[in-house]
Design a protein that fits this description.
The complex is a heterodimer of chains A (250) and B (377). Chain A is elongated. Chain A has 250 residues and is mainly alpha-helical. Chain A contains 10 helices and 2 strands; from the N terminus they run βααααααααβαα. In chain A, helix 2 packs across helix 4 and helix 3 crosses helix 4. Helix content of chain A is 63%, strand content 4%. Chain A has one domain: Transmembrane di-heme cytochromes, Chain C (Fumarate Reductase Cytochrome B subunit, Up-down Bundle). In chain B, helix 2 packs across helix 3, helix 3 packs across helix 9 and helix 4 crosses helix 9. In chain B, the strands form 3 sheets. Chain B has a 5-stranded parallel β-sheet with strand order 2-1-3-7-9, with helices on both faces. A two-stranded antiparallel ribbon of chain B has the order 4-8. Chain B folds into 3 domains: 232 residues, NADH:ubiquinone oxidoreductase-like, 20kDa subunit (Rossmann fold, 3-Layer(aba) Sandwich), CATH 3.40.50; 83 residues, Cytochrome-c3 hydrogenase, C-terminal domain (Cytochrome-c3 Hydrogenase, Chain A, domain 2); 39 residues. Chain B is an alpha/beta fold and 377 residues long. The chains are: A mainly alpha (250), B alpha/beta (377). Chains A and B meet through helix 2 and helix 7 of A and helix 11, helix 14 and helix 15 of B.
């Protein structure tokens, strides 16, 4: 408080989001938008064209076509992202998403206190996802899976391709299409709520951290203080380092 | 005909057909119709004819539990007279509470007789669900609970057919809160007895006949889907064979039952038609001698052959009901509330951020402004 001299940070450019991750992200944005909009139409079609003749019209047909095409892109994009979790950089790693270590839970608790309860203290320092975000993304992946299972499950009986038929067990397990459709509809709301919170938090982090959170999904870079490199107190789970630190150091 | 009078080898189906006064032409017409309904190839018609000519009648015990007898009604109104006359009247009915001549002690004796005499050969048809609450006292016949009767009758049956939605899924009497614990029979039966589910409230008469003809002709149960229903009749959605489907694809819908669109015969999707979620053959086989079916009569499908159709949302709406939030809540209402709550939470968080992290933000700004000034000079 007392020192009036402004401490000018030296920032280093860090390549956080690799190109495949960025492509995955924006492709996901596009297809999710298409899926939600067409999904709402399919669930409750607008009475826009009741005055028209059926001849030559295929409105619902096209909307459903877009929904199914987007669903295929969504599914394979999702599979690709899982694959990239094993070959991408440490910020893309699957370890960012699974709460399987004590450190992960500790960071989640810390993020909860600092960013949600707004307690005072040293700000946490996560360069990729923080543990809380990682865990929420893990939940989105679970909902992705639910949507793929119920969606292709519903689609299975109308398709003659073997691939959607792989999902035919889903409506059978849920006792029929009625409940499957409802689960598919309920789960859709998760995405809408997620998008609101996600976009807000991107603004939030950009605002309170000043590291270029918002633009990072464009160019892939975040701007990290020089000190972080020397002090090394950022909280990104690093398996190699964690193993080494499991010894007497910690 | 009492069971005691039965000869060692019961008459074949064709003998019964002849005895009843039907011509060979009627018989072949019946077989062709059945083969077509079952989705058999033309070459299989001969197989069916031969089976019905040579195979002795299969004894059938038809049990009624918690139900309304609409399945029996549907069956005896099957379009072809031979269905009612031969399959039901003559072949089966060693025991059927609704249609047998015997009553009381005689009836029970008749069932016991069939079960002993045709051990492992008879087909057990079950209409209705089994109440399991309070040890099954909610459905008792001849001093026994339906649970006991079913267990006894199923033990030595060749196959069990669950007629209708009650026996297949529980139907309306198993709707929440299900006071009698009405249970579909597959949850009560011991594993090992082949079970065919023929859901519908009621199922189509010709479908019921088709299942029996298949059992008789091939001596084994028809190919079943994952839910245990015969694929021949339950592999397509009502939606897929609906004559109003072009209106659906065009995006033309009935908005309310008395509007202009309803008169034009547009798709009933928006007034709650469950055709897109319902697997049945209504659109193809239709009802009452192929006269019509609900959608043709201007009413949406209610999904009567689907599990839990009575609790899964309302009949005249597509909206997804949200269990646990009352019958008036649907997923979208809840979603909008959640969305508003999220919006409020986000706004509150934004305000809190500016208050609680004021110093942090202030320093960042100061740092940024300082750099900006240095660039100026």
């Amino acid at each position: 408080m007392s020192d009036t001299a402004v401490h000018i940070q030296r920032l280093r450019r860090v390549y956080v989001w690799e190109k495949p991750v960025r492509i995955y992200h924006w492709l996901n944005v596009l297809v999710l938008l298409a899926l939600v909009v067409t999904g709402f139409y399919i669930a409750n079609p607008l009475a826009l064209q009741s005055q028209h003749e059926a001849t030559g019209k295929f409105t619902m047909g096209w909307i459903r076509y877009i929904h199914f095409a987007a669903a295929y892109i969504f599914f394979f994009n999702f599979l690709f992202r899982i694959y990239w979790g094993f070959v991408g950089n440490k910020y893309a790693s699957w370890r960012q998403f699974l709460p399987i270590s004590r450190k992960f839970f500790k960071e989640m608790w810390y993020v909860f206190r600092m960013d949600i309860l707004m307690l005072k203290g040293r700000e946490h320092m996560s360069i990729g996802h923080n543990a809380m975000a990682g865990f929420i993304y893990f939940l989105t992946f679970v909902v992705f899976l639910v949507q793929c299972l119920t969606g292709f499950g519903l689609y299975a009986s109308t398709s003659s391709w073997w691939f959607p038929k792989l999902f035919a067990w889903v409506p059978a397990m849920l006792g029929g299409d009625i409940l499957t459709r409802q689960v598919h509809h309920w789960a859709m709301w998760f995405f809408i709520l997620f998008v609101v919170i996600h976009v807000y938090l991107v603004f939030y982090h950009d605002y309170v951290e000043g590291r270029g959170e918002m633009s990072s999904m464009g160019g892939g870079w975040k701007f990290i203080e020089e000190e972080t490199f020397t002090r090394g107190h950022h909280q990104t789970p690093n398996p190699e380092k964690a193993k080494a630190q499991d010894g007497p150091v910690k | 005909m009492s069971n005691d009078a039965l000869p060692k080898l019961p008459p074949t189906y064709y003998q019964e057909v002849e005895r009843k006064g039907y011509s060979r032409r009627d018989f072949l017409g019946f077989v062709t119709m059945m083969a077509a309904f079952m989705g058999l190839e033309k070459s299989a018609i001969g197989q069916v004819v031969k089976a019905l000519e040579t195979k002795p009648r299969v004894p059938v015990i038809w049990l009624h539990f918690q139900e309304c007898t609409c399945c029996s009604e549907s069956f005896i109104r099957s379009s072809h007279p031979i269905v009612a006359d031969i399959l039901l009247d003559k072949i089966s009915l060693d025991y059927s509470e609704t249609l047998m001549a015997a009553s009381g002690f005689q009836a029970e004796a008749s069932m016991k007789n069939t079960m002993e005499k045709y051990k492992g050969e008879y087909i057990l048809c079950v209409e209705g669900s089994v109440p399991t609450a309070a040890d099954g006292v909610y459905c008792m016949i001849g001093g026994k609970t339906s649970m006991q009767i079913l267990e006894e009758a199923a033990a030595n049956a060749k196959a069990v057919i669950a007629w209708g939605s009650c026996a297949s899924n529980g139907c309306v009497q198993s709707a929440r809160p299900n006071p009698t614990s009405a249970t579909p029979i597959h949850k009560v039966l011991k594993a090992g007895v082949p079970l065919i589910k023929v859901p519908g409230c009621p199922p189509i008469g010709e479908v019921m006949a088709g299942v029996i003809v298949h059992l008789v002709t091939f001596g084994k149960i028809p190919e079943l889907d994952r839910l245990g229903r015969p694929k021949a009749f339950y592999s397509k959605r009502v939606h897929d064979s609906c004559y109003r489907r072009p209106y659906y694809d065009a995006g033309l819908f009935v908005e309310s039952f008395d509007d202009e669109n309803a008169k034009k015969g547009y798709c009933l999707y928006k007034v709650g038609c469950k055709g897109p979620s319902t697997y049945n053959a209504c659109g193809v086989m239709k009802w009452n001698n192929g006269t019509s079916y609900p959608i043709q009569a201007g009413h949406g499908c209610i999904g009567c052959s689907e599990e839990n159709y009575w609790d899964n949302g309302r009949l005249y709406e597509r909206a997804s009901a949200f269990a646990g939030f009352g019958i008036e809540a649907n997923a979208d209402d809840l979603g909008k509330v959640a969305l508003a709550a999220t919006g409020v939470a986000v706004a509150a968080h934004a305000i809190a951020t500016n208050v609680r992290k004021h110093k942090l933000i202030f320093n960042l700004e100061k740092e940024g402004k300082q750099s900006e000034k240095e660039l100026e000079s």
